[in-house]
Write a sequence for this structure.
């Protein structure tokens, strides 16, 4: 395998892998097993597809697979603004049809560049999908992916640690809210996406990625036994859980490697594969209304956004912002907000009508 990789530049060697994410699982054993009276553990799942190259210079946008093609929480949301590619099927699993689509998307992003793509033997990774000229697809040896696959070697653990940290901090924020209805609000798919995408984009660093490739021995002759960035992510998560003060907290490592999340795809026969091509998402569309427990987001006006920015700026000044990080973040969004307003179609005002009438009279 190392001999094969050595024929490519590190920037042209990629690894793709899927992981399950029980996005509602709570860090408290009591809350995790009894989130709502009379209901069993809430294992609402997403499948997350990640892909990175060996030198850490490219983290491709995540693909996220849910159970509902158009959940209520997506209404009024511009899907292109999510920072990921979203797909759906009834089990929220990777399928041969979806992986074939992902591979075409990957090839397009490579823009004709000759690359090596390493992957495991997931049943959805069907050989019929790999006839792409510029992408050399290679399977890792069976029963070795936990040791040889960089995404399994720590990158996905880091991603989940950062996701669970963001989720725990969200819980801490809810404790400080007055509204009981807000405190009881469950995560939905949009909430999960809004945490896992920045966890991937901002928290999983290039050094994390390169160290995980070294850890697996694919880009270095001497494997790296410990991955400091992954260890640090786990410790930070544990510290946040301690800060919340759960008396029955699930240990950080259990949250990250939650039992059952490793199931990400189903075994498909050849007949199942071709049937899925014909059916597409029709089953999802028929059942999604019945199974959708998400909440539609409100419509926000530009005036509300302006007022919210004023509140944030005032809060930053009251709480102390000596290094200016809060002010800079607010100012950056204010500039973005102003730019979007300038791009919006201009409204017609009453004064404009008088100007036009006066011009006609002069003619």
């Amino acid at each position: 395998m190392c001999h094969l990789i050595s024929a490519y530049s590190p920037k042209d060697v990629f690894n793709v892998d899927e992981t399950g994410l029980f996005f509602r699982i709570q860090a408290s054993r009591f809350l995790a097993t009894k989130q709502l009276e009379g209901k069993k553990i809430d294992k609402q799942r997403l499948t997350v597809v990640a892909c990175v190259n060996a030198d850490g210079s490219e983290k491709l946008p995540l693909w996220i697979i849910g159970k509902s093609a158009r959940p209520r929480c997506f209404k009024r949301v511009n899907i292109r603004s999510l920072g990921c590619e979203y797909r759906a099927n009834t089990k929220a699993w990777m399928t041969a049809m979806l992986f074939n689509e992902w591979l075409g998307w990957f090839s397009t992003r490579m823009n004709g560049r000759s690359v090596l793509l390493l992957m495991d033997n997931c049943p959805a990774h069907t050989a019929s999908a790999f006839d792409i000229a510029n992408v050399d697809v290679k399977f890792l040896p069976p029963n070795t992916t936990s040791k040889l696959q960089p995404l399994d070697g720590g990158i996905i653990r880091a991603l989940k640690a950062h996701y669970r940290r963001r989720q725990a901090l969200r819980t801490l924020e809810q404790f400080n809210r007055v509204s009981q209805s807000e405190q009881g609000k469950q995560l939905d798919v949009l909430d999960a996406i809004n945490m896992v995408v920045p966890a991937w984009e901002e928290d999983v660093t290039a050094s994390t990625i390169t160290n995980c490739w070294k850890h697996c021995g694919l880009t270095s002759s001497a494997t790296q036994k410990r991955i400091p960035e992954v260890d640090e992510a786990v410790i930070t998560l544990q510290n946040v859980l301690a800060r919340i003060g759960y008396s029955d907290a699930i240990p950080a490592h259990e949250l990250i490697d939650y039992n059952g999340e490793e199931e990400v795809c189903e075994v498909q026969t050849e007949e199942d594969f071709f049937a899925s091509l014909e059916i597409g998402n029709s089953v999802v569309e028929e059942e999604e209304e019945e199974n959708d427990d998400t909440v539609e987001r409100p419509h926000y006006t530009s005036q509300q956004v302006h007022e919210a920015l004023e509140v944030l700026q005032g809060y930053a000044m009251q709480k102390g912002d000596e290094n200016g990080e809060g002010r800079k973040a607010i100012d950056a969004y204010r500039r973005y907000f102003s730019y979007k307003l300038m791009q919006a179609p201009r409204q017609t005002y009453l004064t404009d009508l008088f100007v036009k009438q006066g011009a006609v009279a002069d003619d």
In short: The chain has two domains: 2-256, 302-362. Confidence is low (pLDDT under 50) at residues 34-40, 277-284, 359-363. The chain is about 50% helix and 10% strand. Strands lie at 13-22, 45-53, 63-66, 85-88, 115-119, 135-139.
